[in-house]
Amino acid sequence: MARRRLTIKRLDPWTVLKFGVVANVVFYAIFLLVSMVIWFIVDRLQLVDQICEIALDVGFASCGVVAGDVFQVLALLGAMGVIVQTALLVFFAFLYNLIADLTGGLVIGVVEEGAVERSAAGRPVTADRPPNAHPRADPRSDPGYPPGAQATAAPRPAGYADSAESLFEGR
Question: What pTM, to 2 d.p., does this model score?
Fold first, then answer.
């Protein structure tokens, strides 16, 4: 099992727009489908007729619901919802980018399941970190190191320091 920390530093607004439109249209279609199923159930149970009878008994002059009008209003509200929700998603992407510039972004811990190859020193071996990638690792300690070969110093990453004092040298 390998653990990694990933940082989300920026959300591309164009990608958020495309994803938001597709997701909201799918939710809109599901909303209309569920509304039709609920209307079908209410109509089969004759709940609207029973409510209209009660309303006429109370004193209303007329009562009735036209299914076409109900679905026309639901379709209009849903279409407006798709537009408003997509615009809000893009706005929040811009807002996240501004906040991430100040705070450094969102850090996410990721755990990769499965067998992890380990070096002789016990560190995980990945494509971006070969067995002797640690700056202080002695390549001769690796079992695959050819006998009699000279050890060369591993290149140090940018900003690497041997001790805390060397961090402040040159300031």
Answer: 0.57
